Amino acid sequence: MPDTGEIESNKSKARSRVTNGLTLLLTGDGRTAGARRFRDLFSAFAAELGAAAKVPSNEQLLRRIAQVSIELEALEAKRAQGETIDGVAFCTLVNAQRRLLRDLEAAKARSAKPPQTMAEYLASERKARGTLDEAA
Fold first, then answer.
1. How far apart are CA 113 and CA 126, in angstroms?
2. DSSP code at position 114
3. Average pLDDT of each block of 10 consecutive residues along the chain (136 residues)?
4. Of 23, 45, 53, 100, which is least packed with CB atoms within 10 Å of its CB?
5. Are the C-beta atoms of 45 and 62 separated by less than 8 Å?
6. What is the predicted pLDDT for the residue at 78?
7. Contact 111/72 with Cβ under 8 angstroms?
8. Which long-range contacts does 15-21 make (Cβ < 8 Å, 24+ apart)?
9. Residue-number span of the structural domain to which 24 is assigned
C-alpha cells in the first residue's frame, strides 16, 4: 500500500461543516427559534470560557449545556401555558444541567490557571522535598 502522506479525512474538505466551524448544527439552515436560541446559549457559555471554548472537549460541554437548557426552557414554556409536563423528565434535565454547569465551572477554573513552567515545577518540587527533609 503506497504512502499517501496526510490521511484524506484530515483535510478540511473531508471534514464536516461543524468541525470546520462553519455551523453549530449538523442539519437544517439554523433559522428556527430553537436553532437561534442554541447559538445564543452556546455563545454565552463560550464567552465564559474564553479561549478555552475552542478545546474540543469544552466545545462538546458547551453544546450539551445549550441543548439541555433549550429542552428545559421548552418544558417550562409548556408548563407556563398550563400544559402538563413529565416531572421525571424535567427533574432529570435539571440535574443534568446542574452537573454540566458544574463541569463548566471546573473548565473555567482549569483555563484560568496558567500552566506551570518546568522551572516553576522543579522549584516547587525542591521546596516540597526540602520541607519534608526538615520535618524528618
1. 21
2. P
3. 51 68 68 92 93 91 96 97 97 98 92 80 86 53
4. 23
5. yes
6. 97
7. no
8. none
9. 8-135
